[in-house]
Amino acid sequence: MLDIKVAFDDIKMSNLEKEDIVSIQELINSQNRYLDHEVNCTMELDELYERFLECYISENEFFLKINKENRLIGSLKGRLEFKSSNEAWIWYFFIEKNLRCKGIGSRILKKLMEYVKNEYGIKDFYATIVGKSDSIMNFWKGNGYEILRISKNYYNINGEDMDMIILKMKGKVI
Questions:
Q1: 140, 36 in Cβ contact below 8 A?
Q2: Per-residue pLDDT tens for 25-59?
Q3: Which residues pair with 6 in a beta bridge?
Q4: CA dist 159 to 39, 66, 110, 133, Å?
Q5: CATH code of the region 5-169
Q6: Residue ranges per domain, the chain?
Q7: CA–CA separation, 168 vs 119, rounded Å?
Q8: Would you tell me the crossing angle of helices 104-120 and 134-142 to the nearest 10 degrees?
Q9: Closest CA to 75 of 156, 126, 12, 135
């Protein structure tokens, strides 16, 4: 797992540790959101632990906890790919419902993008979202991302087929 530590104002992003998994699971389940879509579902502890282990043994992945004033408020997971143009992929990103639409998520995203650009020479940024949600799409578009591709019925969640939408950051990260 990549070692990422980003702090600004009262926000701190750092690697998820094994002892954080239960807290992250409780937060995800309390928000009724999982993998950036608005279908009510929960994440089982063993599934989250498996994802943590997959990330832990990969040298190019990151799985971050996000704290505000030392209180867990969200999580972000992704990977870096080192190619002719280095890429960052954000697989999921969420913060507590009561903190959304206040600019906090945008600040977190911007600081993470600046960090990986400066530390790892990342030039291209991508994000994936599940299904259609105007609020989630507006978040990404408001942060400079545009739809690159839609994979129809890529996921089946609770018996419902859902699309995977791949977004790409247009322009450059300052």
A1: no
A2: 888 888 764 444 455 556 777 887 788 878 888 89
A3: 13
A4: 11, 31, 35, 18
A5: 3.40.630.30
A6: 5-169
A7: 20
A8: 50
A9: 12
